[in-house]
Amino acid sequence: MSINLNGLQETIGIQFNNDTLLRQALVHDSFLHENPDFELPSNERLEFLGDALLDFIVGEYLYEQHPEMNEGKLTRLRAALINASTLARFARSIDLGQHIYLSHGEDDPGGRGRVGLLSDAFEALVAAIYLDAGLEATRDFLIALVEPEAGRIVESGLEGDPKGRLQEWTQREQGAMPEYRAVKEQGPVHAKEFTVEVLVSGEVYGRGQGRSKQVAEEEAAKEALEEIERRQA
Questions:
Q1: Distance between CA atoms of 175 and 182, rounded to whole angstroms?
Q2: pLDDT of 54-75, one tens digit each?
Q3: CA distances from 76 to 72, 82, 83, 135, 150 (A)
Q4: Are residues 67 and 129 in the same domain?
Q5: N or C end of the chain: smaller count of CB under 10 Å?
Q6: Residues in CB range of 180: below 8 A, 6 or more apart
Q7: Which residues are bridge partners to 208 per DSSP?
Q8: How is residue 212 annotated by DSSP?
């Protein structure tokens, strides 16, 4: 499998000194099941480090940028910024899915767009940048993505409980409860990913994905709130 590392580096604006780190960040464990002699391990250890870096860098950024927020609001906003759905959007914005070493079984139609796969690879990429170029380069890369998303979330109030907010709106405006409907379940047993739609008065307002039905419902509710905001604009 050929991966265009130069294209990815050009997209993210970072030239790696050690491109082995970048390649490792792109190795999904399913690829190794089909290619046991591949020279690199999976990206799972990098995911672990990337998760910690996201917590710290985004937390530090929000602390500095929002002195008016208390701990609870900062925590909710950070969670909205570094959940799997948001990280997957960041990954899509740099076309990360097309660069991942993936097994034939996982690489089915739509497989490279799965939220879990993309968010994990994005975390691994963050760690690879840190190990290769240091904290400042990692911070610059992340904040360029986080800053506009944080502004949008704060402006729309989406850092609160999305399911609760959607229920309040539907009861007030429609006199009904939102209906959540599971539409897809995919992935291996140990890494299931669920897709859920939320309907308001029989109309689909949002769709979400997650590693549990609860997370998928929250993402669907969040998308529904964004749809309501667009309709009211």
A1: 23
A2: 999 999 999 999 999 988 889 8
A3: 6, 10, 11, 24, 11
A4: yes
A5: C
A6: 196, 197, 198, 199, 217, 220
A7: 196
A8: S
> Which CATH number does the domain housing residue 26 bear?
1.10.1520.10
Task: Report the number of distinct structural domains present in the chain.
Answer: 2
pLDDT at 95: 94
Burial of 227 (0-12, 13-18, 19+ CB in 10 A): middle
Q: Summarize pLDDT for 164-217 with one digit per residue, the tens.
A: 888 888 888 888 889 999 998 887 777 788 999 999 989 999 999 888 888 899
Total residue length of the chain: 233
Is residue 38 domain-shared with residue 147, that is, in the same domain? yes
Q: Do residues 208 and 224 share a domain?
A: yes
Tokens, residue 178: 């939102």
Same domain, 136 and 179: no
pTM: 0.75
Long-range contacts of 32-37 (CB under 8 A, 24+ apart): 33/103, 34/103, 34/104, 34/105
pLDDT single digits (tens) 102-148: 888 776 666 678 888 899 999 999 999 999 999 999 999 999 999 99
Residue-number span of the structural domain to which 175 is assigned? 162-232
Q: Say how far apart CA 147 and CA 140 lie, in whole Å.
A: 10
| Of 83, 166, 90, 162, the residue nearest 129 (C-alpha) | 90
